[in-house]
Design a protein that fits this description.
Number of domains: 1
Distance between the termini: 43 Å
Order of helices and strands: HHHHHHHHHHHHHHHHHH
Shape: globular
Oligomer: single chain
Helix content: over 70%
């Protein structure tokens, strides 16, 4: 097993893997969700709790998932079968791989629709700019959601872009894409931060809001929100990091690269906050505006800004790029499994996976308009898929990864893959066996209403 290689190829370098895995982690969660949940939970104190959760929960589970992927060198489903056999464990552990692959497809089905909103806003910015009138901005967003033709068109365009990258393979597709998109994404963010710095007092107000802690704003709900987001923002529990880890060369340190990836992901989230909050304060908007902060509040800010036309375009291009780098990792586990188990070519596997995901995504798009009255457990299709994946499947997946790597796998196999000095290996062992699973279990208890 030590010399086994993935049939899909390998990353050409450690840097390529870091870019790819960072791209998987960096997405709408960093630029869309992190600013608004920070705004809803008081700012600086929430950021500190979030960073603590990244260190105690996110990084240990990322190390574990990457390690399992490189050890198995296959899709998550086959990796779990191989590793459970190696550990003389129950063969049902392969269902953990199935859950991760399924979660990736379900997430991408609605993720693509949201990414379609951002794509539509790029063109709205180009051709119409943004209005400073809140009523007009809200009507624009409402009109987009009410149009099945627009939503399906943009969802289709995004899925075609995603699958055209995936079908080209590890080196020719995934790696080339992230080598282009990730530097551009960082450059766009830095440019937007630079613009935010020109807002004068609003910039300092935004930075103070983001980094000056007031722990009186923190309650148990805020802690659990930070814990959950630290976990979800790194893209754990859905097979993406595991399958990317399976393409990782043997001589690359999993622990070091995981630290770099988590660090880059966190920097993107913080830069997004630094770019967004000064614009919010400069235009008298509420930082606690919730999910509408990006699509309903920021367009007002761009409408009021000098040069808002250009920076509005840049912002939504940034959002599309971030979504695309995550999307290719969400579908990759299923594509890998189809190639390994069904004998499909990579092109055929990509087309089949893409069509299945696209079809489900169409139902998500329609749930905002013509199917809005169709509900399951009092939730629209979009709400149901979001709830099942983010609140149940991903935390259960992360919990199981922690248990499997910390308690099921043979210690000598784990140690051989991680190659950590004794003290560092012990610290990781404590975090993965006790701290991380305990924290994720608390998230699950909160989801089901026990706490």
């Amino acid at each position: 097993m030590a010399n086994k290689k993935s049939i899909h190829g390998e990353w050409s370098s450690r840097f390529a893997y870091i870019l790819a895995a960072t791209g998987s982690a960096v997405g709408l969660g960093n630029i869309w969700k992190f600013p608004y949940i920070t705004g809803e939970n008081g700012g600086g104190a929430f950021v500190i709790v979030y960073l603590a959760c990244i260190v105690a929960i996110g990084i240990p589970i990322m190390i574990a998932e990457s390690m399992m992927g490189r050890r198995g060198r296959q899709s998550p489903i086959n990796t779990l079968e191989t590793l459970s056999t190696e550990a003389n464990a129950n063969k049902n552990w392969h269902y953990l791989g199935w859950m991760g692959v399924s979660a990736g497809v379900l997430i991408l089905s609605y993720y693509s629709v949201i990414a379609g909103w951002a794509s539509a806003y790029v063109f709205k910015a180009i051709f119409g700019g943004f209005s400073s009138d809140a009523i007009v901005v809200k009507a624009t967003f409402d009109d987009l959601l009410a149009s099945p033709i627009q939503l399906v068109f943009w969802h289709t365009a995004f899925m075609v872009a995603t699958m055209s990258v995936v079908m080209r393979g590890v080196n020719g597709g995934l790696e080339k894409a992230v080598r282009f998109f990730m530097p551009v994404l960082f450059a766009l963010l830095v440019l937007l931060v630079g613009y935010a710095m020109t807002t004068g007092e609003a910039y300092f107000k935004g930075v103070r809001f983001l980094f000056s802690p007031d722990f009186s704003e923190i309650d148990s709900d805020a802690v659990l929100t930070a814990m959950g987001h630290a976990f979800f923002t790194l893209g754990l529990g859905m097979g993406a990091i595991m399958v990317y880890g399976s393409y990782l060369p043997k001589n690359v340190s999993i622990a070091k690269t995981s630290l770099y990836i988590a660090g880059a992901d966190t920097v993107v989230a913080l830069l997004a906050g630094i770019a967004i909050f000064p614009l919010v304060f400069a235009n008298g908007l509420e930082p606690s505006a919730g999910p509408g902060l990006i699509f309903q509040s920021l367009p007002i800010a761009f409408g009021n800004m000098t040069g808002g036309w250009l920076f509005g375009i840049l912002f939504f291009v940034l959002l599309v790029f971030a979504a695309l780098t995550s999307a290719i990792s969400l579908i990759e586990p299923l594509v890998a499994w189809l190639v390994e188990n069904k004998g499909f070519t990579r092109t055929k596997a990509s087309i089949v996976s893409g069509l299945c995901t696209w079809t489900l995504g169409v139902s998500v798009a329609l749930s905002f308009n013509v199917w809005s009255g169709f509900k399951i457990f009092d939730k629209t299709i979009f709400d149901l898929l979001d709830y099942l994946t983010a609140n149940l499947m991903l935390p259960i997946g992360g919990l199981c990864i922690a248990i499997f790597s910390g308690w099921i796998m043979h210690k000598k196999h784990v140690s051989a893959e991680l190659d950590l000095p004794g003290f560092q290996f012990k610290v990781w062992g404590i975090l993965i066996r006790y701290i991380a699973p305990g924290a994720v279990f608390l998230v699950l208890l909160d989801v089901i209403g026990v706490i």
